[in-house]
Amino acid sequence: MMPSSPQATSWASDPAASPTVGPPPGETVPEQGFWRERLRGLAMLGGALLLCLLNAVSIVMWQKFYVKIFLVAGPLGAGGMWQTIFGDEFDDKTHALVMWKRVGFYASIVVGVLIGLLVSFLIAD
Questions:
Q1: What share of the chain is helix, strand, coil (3-state, %, to 5)?
Q2: C-alpha to C-alpha distance for 115 and 96, rounded to whole angstroms
Q3: Distance (Å, rounded) from C-alpha 18 to C-alpha 6?
Q4: Is 83 exposed, middle or buried (0-12, 13-18, 19+ CB in 10 A)?
Q5: pTM value surpassing 0.85
Q6: d(CA 6, CA 35)
Q7: At CB < 8 A and 24+ separation, what contacts does 17-21 make?
Q8: Residue 45: what are its φ and ψ, rounded to 5°?
Q9: C-alpha span between 121 and 74 (Å, rounded)
Q10: Residues sharing a CB contact under 8 Å with residue 109, sequence separation 6 or more, in sequence order
Q11: Could you read off the pLDDT of 11-22 as tens digits, one per residue?
């Protein structure tokens, strides 16, 4: 007689065996740090301001203006403002960024690129 193998059951028939994405029941999202993400945003914003300041110094000292700096400073500044204002918001179940946070951050980067392009075209003429 052959030994019987355990019967394979579907998770659909047994809710206790359903696959979970998030932490086990009763476990909460670990503290991600309120200030860490906002300080990262301030660093991005500071980098954008530093690039603009270096451009202003190059205008005064060497009479050279670098228009392409705005293509970097625009997205860096817009993304830094978004990150400073909103920080990170994590889903309790998946530990991933919530969708509105991701969409907003990428939209702010796109807006920063558009602002950088607009400023560089307006100033270049």
A1: 60, 0, 40
A2: 29
A3: 18
A4: buried
A5: no
A6: 51
A7: 21/93, 21/94
A8: -65, -40
A9: 13
A10: 75, 78, 79
A11: 555 555 555 555
